[in-house]
Design goal:
4 domains; Elongation Factor Tu (Ef-tu), domain 3; Rossmann fold; six-stranded mixed sheet; alpha+beta; globular
């Protein structure tokens, strides 16, 4: 194995321009830093059963790609002797990830461990997620921003219940790329038939779940086979090494670049001559001069300028944070949304959604939760539970109030109008969280399936203020509008009639 594969050599084989005289030993540091800044970022998670080797695999990636500092190597060698499980004189790569005392004592992963490293081609953020069913919420947290998931299985055990559960959760999260890493191939003598049987069974599972992009690797995380370099011990395997694949898998098409969604986070008014709407482009692309519409007012305008700290832009796209200035004075505040007029999201207060319960406290359907969706916060109630999902068998069961880590399909009604898309179409505008109003804990995360039709909606009465009927004079209308708008921002909707 070539252990110098990704060891950065600034004096040879570098793609960056050199400077200086003679043999040109120097390097243009500015060009190097500029190129490093332009690398794209791959977020990935690892999942698998206990002892399948998730932490060992990531530790091996970091070790063999030469991305550890000297003090980290020394600590790893010392800890391997003291608490390692790899055997006498062997390095236990899992200790790079299992940082909690309880994790090392029990030999399991409990918390989500994040690790960052980069190669000459790409930057990576790895989330090592726990395999235990009781830590399902930790896996959901780690996978919420992932582009790719590595599902590990033990070559001796094949596809087990945990594998099916993790794959279901990955499909629920909308992760588009899946790697099946068949680990511990050294313990089955690198048998091609064993690998092919596991691969065939797993592809049948992912086809059932509607997952298209699946790549399978025969690896040994402990020995390093097919992790950073392809192994001579699997001559029948003709594919890339795992790291080669991670460096080249295309992810730039994963983002929704078609549906422009711009949730307003803040209104910037430093002086009388400037009024801009600050936020992060959730999806899509916006150009200077584009016609836009503000939701929920439906008032139209055009983009006068796109402002950033570095200067003005001609265009902006997700996930950039920018300030939009419009040609017309439109009243837009936090929680509202700017979109293209010919491409509107769903606008409504009721929708069907998959819900993952994250709270230690069981679900209480009599409670009104706070629902946070992008920059919008409102009160919400769970109207109906359609079914629960047994994540081990993927069977639907009769609905009841959810306990910790349970998943199911529910119907939710909000007090305030939301602007949303189906999660499968747009992860940025199709996800939300429910917050307990008393404890302020995150009670659940949701992935919106579709808006509810009129006949499916559990209509909640919105209080109405008929100002003329109450004898309130027009001189008070402005103050009432201001108070009603503030209540709306807090998730309390009130309808005002002035005629």
């Amino acid at each position: 194995m070539d252990n110098n594969r990704n060891n950065m050599d600034l004096s040879a084989n570098t793609p960056f321009p050199r400077e200086g005289k003679g043999d040109g030993v120097g390097i243009d540091i500015k060009a190097f830093l500029d190129a490093d800044e332009k690398k794209d970022l791959l977020r990935l998670l690892t999942a698998g059963s206990v002892d399948d080797g998730k932490s060992t695999l990531i530790g091996r990636l970091l070790f063999d790609s030469k991305k550890l500092y000297e003090d980290q190597l020394q600590a790893l060698e010392r800890d391997s002797k003291r608490v390692g499980n790899a055997g006498a004189g062997e390095i236990d790569y899992a200790l790079l990830l299992d940082g909690l005392k309880a994790e090392r004592e029990e030999g399991i992963t409990i918390d989500v461990a994040y690790r960052y490293f980069s190669t000459n081609q790409r930057k990576f953020i790895i989330a090592d997620t726990p395999g235990h069913e009781q830590y399902t919420r930790n896996m959901i947290t780690g996978g919420s921003t992932a582009n790719l998931a590595i599902i590990l299985v033990d070559a001796r055990n094949g596809i087990i219940t945990q594998t099916r559960r993790h794959t279901f959760l990955v499909s629920l999260l909308g992760i588009k790329h899946i790697v099946l890493a068949v680990n511990k191939m050294d313990l089955v003598d690198f048998d091609e038939q064993v690998f092919n049987c596991i691969k065939k069974e797993y592809l049948a599972l992912t086809e059932q779940l509607g997952i298209d992009d699946v790549t399978c690797f025969p690896i040994s995380a402990k020995e390093g086979d097919n992790v950073v370099e392809t192994s001579s011990r699997t001559p029948w395997y003709k594919g890339q090494s795992l790291l080669d694949y991670l460096e080249t898998v295309p992810i730039h098409h994963d983002r929704n670049m078609h549906d422009f969604r711009y949730p307003v986070q803040y209104v910037l008014r430093p002086n009388l001559d400037f009024r801009g709407f600050c936020g992060k482009v959730a999806s899509g692309v916006i150009y200077k001069g584009d016609e836009v519409v503000a939701l929920p007012s439906m008032k139209r305008s055009r983009v006068k300028s796109i402002v950033t700290y570095e200067g003005e832009l001609e265009e902006a796209f997700c996930p950039q944070s920018v300030t939009l200035c419009l040609e017309d004075e439109i009243d837009i505040s936090r929680g509202e949304m700017i979109v293209h007029p010919d491409n509107l999201p769903h606008i409504g207060r009721s929708f069907q959604t998959m819900l993952v319960w994250m709270d230690e406290e069981p679900m209480d359907r009599t409670k009104q939760f706070f629902l946070k969706h992008n920059t919008n916060t409102t009160r919400a109630s769970i109207d109906d539970i359609e079914y629960r999902v047994d994540v081990n068998t993927m069977e639907r069961q009769e609905g009841r109030d959810f306990q910790l880590n349970e998943i199911g399909c529910v119907r939710i009604t909000t007090a305030k109008t939301l602007f949303f898309d189906a999660y499968k179409q747009n992860r940025a505008t199709g996800a939300f969280i429910l917050i307990d109003p008393i404890t302020n804990n995150t009670s659940a995360v949701g992935m919106i399936i579709r808006p509810l039709e009129e006949g499916e909606i559990n209509v909640l009465d919105v209080p109405t203020l008929n100002l003329p009927a109450l004898g309130i004079g027009q001189e008070h209308y402005e103050a009432i509008d201001k108070a009603v708008k503030e209540l709306s921002r807090q998730g309390i909707e009130i309808k005002v009639e002035k005629a």
